[in-house]
Amino acid sequence: MSNRATSATSKPPLYKIVMLGDSGVGKTSLVARLTNPNAPLNHDISATMGIEFDTQMLDTPHGKVKAQIWDTAGQERFARVLLPTYFRKAKGVILVYDVTSAKSFESLAERWMAQLNDHANSDELAKLLVGNKCDLEDGREVSRERAMGFCEEFGMEHLETSAKSGANVLRAFERLITIVHEKNLAARGGGGGAGVAASGARGGGGGGGSYDGDKGGTLKLDEGNVRGDGTSENSANACGC
Ligand SMILES: Nc1nc2c(ncn2[C@@H]2O[C@H](COP(=O)(O)OP(=O)(O)OP(=O)(O)O)[C@@H](O)[C@H]2O)c(=O)[nH]1
Ligand SMILES: [Mg+2]
Q: MF terms per GO, please (predicted)?
């Protein structure tokens, strides 16, 4: 059977991608803008307290693929215990900073890249640097040139986005998933793009938190019930209620 016939009949591949960055940079707002483009930005949004995930079909030059987007907690107390779960079977990472916060940018090199290297094979992960809140030009603390320096050092592309206006939001997710998909196609010698994450996407497994690859859901934690291995005494709440 030709590759063409295979791709016409097979399900789109599913890849897990992870949003990383300090608390308040706008990770949840970016995912909300992607999945619900017409809803206004929520300024009263709560900090993510564990993991929230959603799936979204995205276009690539090689056809449609499904992204399972893990929106993680930027707050140290939650992120620390959940890092192994965040990275398990992940194929791509969006590193988010806030263009109005130099601290959030510096944190990427000082904190998030180090944790990525500790918990995942960084070379195998597709990465994209995203400077969010580009609508707040008057408050800018991170220049594009500085961001480009980071990209050269760590080998990734860069986009500035606004979860408020919607600027570049779809483009950022589509760009990352295209890099992920192309890596997968290259690894398979250019053949059909079978879903790498799909086999692990149902029923969870050893990494903590079960989830359903076709739906969104949440795994909410609080300090009292987080164990050191990244699991929780709370059961995963995959219905999102
Ligand atoms: N002006 C502006 N505000 C934004 C933008 N994106 C997010 N915000 C605001 O920034 C605040 C934090 O956004 P969140 O999406 O909760 O940030 P987060 O990265 O998910 O934070 P944690 O869940 O704590 O890790 C909220 O008040 C948002 O309304 C943006 O593009 N422009
Ligand atoms: Mg959040």
A: GTP binding
Residue 75: closest CA among 110, 102, 51, 93: 51
Provide the percentage of residues in the chain whose pLDDT is more than 70. 75
| Ligand 2: centre distance to CA 27 (Å) | 5
With a 6 A CB cut-off, is 165 part of the ligand 1 pocket? no
Q: Where does 155-230 have alpha helices with state H?
A: 169-187
Q: Per residue in 131-177, pLDDT tens?
A: 999 999 999 999 999 999 999 999 999 999 999 999 999 999 999 99
The bound ligand whose nearest atom lies closest to the alpha carbon of 73 is 1
Distances (CA, A) of 210 to 36, 52, 207, 215, 229: 24, 12, 9, 12, 15
Buried-state track 125-140, b at ≥16 Cβ within 10 A, e below 16: bbbbbbbbbbbeeeeb
